Amino acid sequence: MISFELPEKIQQTVTLMQTVAENMMRPVSRHFDEHEHEIPWDYITFMHEASRAMGGASSMVPNGGKKPEGPRLGYQRLAYMAEILSWGDAAMYLCTPGGMLGSAAVQATGTKDQKERFLKRFQGEKPAFDAMALTEPHAGSAMPAEVRTTAVRDGEQWVLNGEKIFVTSGHKALLDSDGFVVIWATIDPSAGRAGVRPFVVEAGTPGVKVTKLEHKMGIRVSDTASIVLQEARVPFDNILGSPEVEVKTTEGFKGAMVTFDASRPLVAASALGIARAALEGLKEFLQEQGITIRYGLPRSRMSDIEREVIDMEVMHRSAWLLTLKSCWMLDDRRANNLEASMSKIRAGDVVVKITQRVVELMGPLGISHERLFEKWFRDAKINDLYEGTGQINRLIVARRILGYTRRELD
Ligand SMILES: Cc1cc2nc3c(=O)[nH]c(=O)nc-3n(C[C@H](O)[C@H](O)[C@H](O)COP(=O)(O)OP(=O)(O)OC[C@H]3O[C@@H](n4cnc5c(N)ncnc54)[C@H](O)[C@@H]3O)c2cc1C
To answer: Which of 9, 93, 246, 357 has its CA 20 to 30 A from that of 347?
Structure first.
């Protein structure tokens, strides 16, 4: 039987995260928005200790990669976590230590030994960060065919050269902690997609430089770095997946897709946390003005604002249910490629529409720095851009539904 009750195991996480969001994020949200590259260490330290106390729970790797006792709820739990922390502050959520996209890639493509070797640092004394670098100046949506970063084998090492841009938490992973970045590079430029592989590049690797931090419209406390690799040497077994190039397959790059199938629903959840913050903020404001939403009333007898709020709540709720379904499929080990993209498209649209409309409805307070509405509006848009833009995810959905190949529909 389908149940929409919150499982008890998740309830504990929800309660803890709600306390963190209310007490450690909201009060400093404006400060960190105005101090773009300051690092929210209080939040980071607390989350690190909490993760250690919970046995290694991280932001994108359920149960710290360990087999859970009882039913698998890891991704559903992570979705609640992402939603609530993003209700607190979406940019600070992106600063959560201990396993974001880079770890998701290790989890999706690494061997047992690699998972142990690379992920155990997140349970150390100090917080550590990870990142995943696919995008290059000439390779965004057109990844991976356009990847120009190269990895050449030299004995028991790989030598990496190239440039990566827009790397979320690249600075924190390489310079502020003993973390790592998963760099996607080609081991055979003539093989196109089939030559692309992920490599773990650890903090302190000579030849790796963070050359720039982006100044952004939203999610400003999250660092977005450019990374240059010049003759950067990593051990041979830092390659995730096979070092062989099977020209007729794209097995190597499938790891990125598996990573996105796991991470896109979490981006959707994060987006919906921002949308909920805006909606709740609007309702509180309306309440202060003596306006309550009369849910039971026939639609024709409602005021315009009541109808609008309810319509936005419906959009929000349906996107959330789609996101949860996509996470449930992951927990149930079902292929969720279609649902992962659908949930991200839907949540990306919903968060932009809701935050924009709430800013409009709030009047001058919508754009004032007195409240956070204008910040949520700025934080919203990225959810429709990274980890596949809305257009690219629509292509994925169309290919899945219509049964087209990438070549037939691009
Ligand atoms: C804040 C931030 C954080 C990021 N973090 C990371 C990260 O951690 N790691 C990482 O690797 N990357 C990251 N990115 C990069 C992000 O994933 C890319 O920006 C995104 O994939 C789009 O690539 P692009 O910017 O090159 O745009 P382009 O690919 O040049 O696209 C430009 C526009 O054209 C559209 N378009 C492109 N191709 C098609 C098509 N075939 N059909 C229809 N429309 C199309 C796109 O949807 C978009 O609207 C981040 C970006 C930002 C802004």
So the answer is: 9
Neighbours of 191 (CB within 10 A): 16
Query: 162-181 pLDDT, tens per residue?
Result: 999 999 999 999 999 999 99
Q: Is the CB of 149 within 6 Å of ligand 1?
A: no
8 A C-beta contact, residue 94 and residue 48: no
Read off the pLDDT of residues 56-115 as tens digits, 9 standing for 90 and up.
Answer: 665 566 766 666 666 688 899 999 999 999 999 999 999 999 888 999 999 888 999 999
Domain boundaries for CATH 1.20.140.10 within the chain: 252-402
CATH architecture of 8-118: Orthogonal Bundle (1.10)
Atom of ligand 1 nearest to the CA of 222: 1
| Separation of alpha carbons 98 and 179, rounded Å | 9
Considering only CA atoms, which residue is closest to atom 32 of ligand 1? 141
Pocket test of ligand 1: the residue of 103, 166, 257 to mutate, having most ligand atoms within 8 Å of its CB, is: 166
- Could you tell me the CATH superfamily of domain 252-402? Butyryl-CoA Dehydrogenase, subunit A, domain 3 (1.20.140.10)
Q: Is 141 in the pocket of ligand 1 (CB under 6 A)?
A: yes
